């Protein structure tokens, strides 16, 4: 605001001075005040000098403020495929001491800044804050000094409601800090509930040397367009590709976490007092065309293009749907069978239902409300896998010297899927995976082991300090809630399909094999 109004002020002063210098010298004003021609010239000259001084002072202050608060933005590329409409209202600026997220201004506020998971018990504990205090600049400075290529990548962290909100921002902060990326460099992303009517995807600008955190992105375009979106470089800086960190969660534990979190007294988020929990999947409209969430995710989930093995019991072929459109209708129908149908709850709020309904019914209501995030997670797991295949195919053709027409063929995508459940159960192991993914062989093995052990020890100490706010939430209750969802004729099968899809994605990324016990391992 200061920069804007300062610029307007300078322009106004210059315009005023120009007008005064163009005015003819007349004695009209001077005679009225008993002065001669010389008085007119003196008065005009004094006014001009004052204006020059004011303009100079304002300009110096303006330049100082601009230098302290901003960096030069990257110039947009001429052939920007996303230049048709930019309404960036979901942005992240990360650094050592500055963190902010501008979320959706959707009515009810349920999709903006989610509450931190660290306020719950060991099942809900996010662990994002556990990294603070155990790593120093010296732990990473030796890497950055000799390996400046880290800045040639764009870093994208994708998360969902109750799959690691605090963790995602902590990881982003540490990437910014230890990779020595510019503090004010952030990527612009469309509102996560905005869908481009042209390509049906959230639009973003993943420039090299930036870190982007986006929750539940709307990726509903085909794999080729999504690959182009991720690989596109709006900056003139060299871009080697994208490193994608996908924070996910077992759908059952995600649903339980969501239920336990929002039914707290007092509730951490106010939207539960005003929202219709049954409207998310088929009642909420996105984009100019009024897309429904269920209609957007169904094409990918109904044609997964991936063989999924379900705990060794059966195998879903690449043509077997993870979910179909009718599954979403059943969820909505089940939700409305609970919402405002019970005696005494005919006009009650969503929150009052969460506090009053039996656990087995309350969790069905809350899962229907946030099932869009579970569906987005499943859809994006499939899409990211397909996009990786597209980019690798382009890379192969690039190396063989054919198909030069493909855009962004000189860029790579590196992807890792990190379940929040593993951050909770095996903090040292999962942190080691994170280090391997980001730093690869450029960080010595002994350094990775040391950092992972320090992280796990600090994590366990931090977790103990949060146990006093669980307010009755315990592992036994969570297990019973998961069991009720598995037995549900509405949620059971779709969520088990998504659970198996997550296992298959993790197996593929790790190079594991399916074993006779029905689970995958690195070796049987």
Automatic annotation (TrEMBL):
It comes from the Eukaryota. Residues 21-45, 77-113 are annotated as: Disordered. InterPro entries: P-loop_NTPase. Transmembrane segments: none annotated. Residues 21-32 have a biased composition (Basic residues). This is Sulfotransferase domain-containing protein. The lineage of its organism: Eukaryota, Sar, Stramenopiles, Ochrophyta, Bacillariophyta.
